[in-house]
Amino acid sequence: MNKEIAAKINNILKNYNIKGKCIKIEENHTGNINSTYVVTILEDSGILRRYIIQKINTTVFKDPNILMHNIENVTLHLEKELKSLNDTTHKSLHLIRTKDDDIYCHVTETDDRDYYRVYDYIENAISYDMVKSPDIAYKVGQAFGNFQMLLRDFPIFSLEETIPGFHDTPARYAKLENDIFKDFKKRADDIGQEFYTIYRNKNRYPKIINALRSNRIPWRVTHNDTKVNNVMMDKDTNEFLAVIDLDTVMPGSMLFDYGDGIRSTAATAFENETDLSKVHLDLELFEAYTDGFLSEMAPCITESEVSLMGESIRIITLELAIRFLDDYICGDIYFKVDPKRTRHNLERAQNQLALAKDIEKNMPTIENFIKECYKKHKGKSRKII
Ligand code: GN1
Ligand code: MG
After folding, report:
1. Closest-lying ligand to the alpha carbon of 348?
2. For the chain, which terminal residue's Cβ has fewer other Cβ atoms within 10 angstroms, N or C?
3. Are residues 16 and 163 in the same domain?
4. Does ligand 1 lie within 6 Å of residue 114's CB atom?
């Protein structure tokens, strides 16, 4: 770990009642937004304890205060629910408070906009960037379904929007059109085919957000970033332990979480894969994830939500393609990119479009399975785990 980062981490730790010597700092590179470090402390008692230290990306999350209050309220609620269910297997992220009893710290020695938070490290856990086994896909689906279930009584609109319009797909599309029109970075000539596919699908984009806004489907507390690696699983048993990355927990539709969960968990290739012949939707993984998700959620969702589940997979995949393409057009200002890849965001968009094409091909099978799976689960009373 370079000296500059070590000095920064030690500076942050000064704000906390974390006693002992920092003996190891590892950067975790999986996220596209925040910077994450795993820090090992040797306590005076000889015990090794690990923490997650995260720098909040304030370009993306403009107001760290509302972001952190959402997270605090949600994690406290999750802890309370798990306790009342006597559930000792599953966990919630746990924020460490500063010496001043705050939920994040502002490191003024560095840049004015450097905000950090500290979580307990979840031990003996692993997260997957890609899934090959249906058993794990089932558990990931179950984890995100369970997360929404545990938050079913949470006062939805006490949560602030950390990124307004995060899954407002038509607004994302309109922004892309507008940015292409302005073309400040002179990149619009590179994206004819990709934009055409996105344009061709434009009538689909309002389907979820309009259903929500007209109350045809209910608002719920949703995670909004249900990437497969946002579930920590037990290394030994593969049981899910906790859902992480709570920055985008906001009022939303369960369809955002379901659609994004399938997009991420059932894809046969990483989002960074450029060999598009490798990019497909694995139907077995799709089925397993759906089964896990509905085993938690089916008893309390509405027929209108179910009728949009298949479409949500396609919409959220196209939405991410729109977001990657828009970031390419804007000069890579949102998603972290590999400096050696000048077209990284364009390639990510191409990858998502390849996935969307395969989803489209399989739509009848997808719709049919969702219907049957919902039928199987809806009568059951919810299993409390
Ligand atoms: C970002 O931070 P990370 O890597 O979990 C993004 C998601 C995208 C995802 C695509 C706040 O998630 O919306 O689906 O990249 N998060 C935010 O990899 O924009
Ligand atoms: Mg995230």
Report:
1. 1
2. N
3. no
4. no
Instruction: Kindly report the pTM of this predicted structure.
Output: 0.95
The answer as to whether 385 is a domain residue is no
Retrieve residue 324's tokens.
């990657």
**Stretch (H or E) spanning 243:** strand 240-243
Q: Is the CB of 32 under 6 A from ligand 1?
A: yes
Ligand 1 mean position, distance from CA 383 (Å): 30
What CATH number should be reported for the domain holding residue 158?
3.90.1200.10
317 lines ligand 1 (CB under 6 A): no
**Does residue 384 sit within a domain?**
no
User: Does one domain contain both 334 and 203?
Assistant: yes
Q: Which of 227, 327, 336 to mutate to test the pocket of ligand 1 (most atoms within 8 A of CB)?
A: 227
Torsion angle in degrees (nearest 10) through CA of 113, 118, 123, 125? -30
Mean pLDDT in the chain?
95
DSSP string covering 202-216: TTTTHHHHHHHHTTS
Residue with tokens 């705050």: 102
CB 326 within 8 A of CB 179: yes
Q: Are 108 and 227 part of one and the same domain? A: no
Q: Cβ distance 122 to 234 under 8 Å?
A: no
Query: Where does the pLDDT of residue 33 fall: very low under 50, low under 70, confident under 90, or very high at 90 and above?
Result: confident
Task: Name the residue range of residue 331's domain.
Answer: 134-378
E-assigned strands of 43-114? 48-55, 105-106
Examine residue 126 and state whether it is found in any structural domain, yes or no.
no
Domain contains 114: yes
Handedness of CA 164, 170, 172, 174 (dihedral sign): negative
User: Is 258 a residue whose pLDDT tops 80?
Assistant: yes
